[in-house]
Design goal:
Largest sheet: 8 strands, antiparallel, barrel
Helix content: 25-40%
Radius of gyration: 18 Å
Number of helices: 4
Structural class: alpha+beta
Distance between the termini: 44 Å
Number of strands: 9
């Protein structure tokens, strides 16, 4: 009986220690989702990418929930907008005064990194670290 109570208490303690995000969801579930491969829906993109810092070669940005992109990218700043369209994140933007060509990107997640492929999966790829 004592062993059973101990096991139950340990299970309860473990459940209480599971970290949660601001919205109350279990962060372990989000991390698990991030390791699942291709991002195919806007809901999955919002759950795993939106609001997180994305870093590439020392430069960073955030894809915001309000449809904007922002960050200190390469000391010049990055600004832009994004939307989800047919399985891809499409964005317009600027780095400093340089206008970026519009692009729709396919995202694939692997733990704390995201491989992004331009031109709806037909262009060059690069990898962001997600934090």
């Amino acid at each position: 009986m004592r062993a059973l109570l101990l096991i139950a208490a340990m299970g309860l303690l473990t459940a209480c220690m599971s970290p949660t995000s601001d919205d109350g969801s279990d962060m372990a579930d989000k991390a698990s989702m991030a390791a699942d491969g291709a991002v195919t829906t806007e809901a999955q993109f919002r759950e795993t990418i939106v609001g997180r810092t994305l870093t590439f070669e020392g430069k960073s940005l955030v894809v915001n929930a309000d449809g904007t992109i922002s960050g200190p990218w390469d000391g010049q700043g990055i600004t832009g907008t994004w939307n989800w369209s047919d399985g891809a994140m499409c964005r317009d933007g600027r780095i400093g005064s340089r206008v970026l060509a519009p692009d729709c990107q396919v995202w694939e997640l692997d733990g704390s990194s995201a491989t992004v492929t331009r031109d709806r999966g037909n262009g060059a790829s690069f990898v962001y670290t997600i934090s």
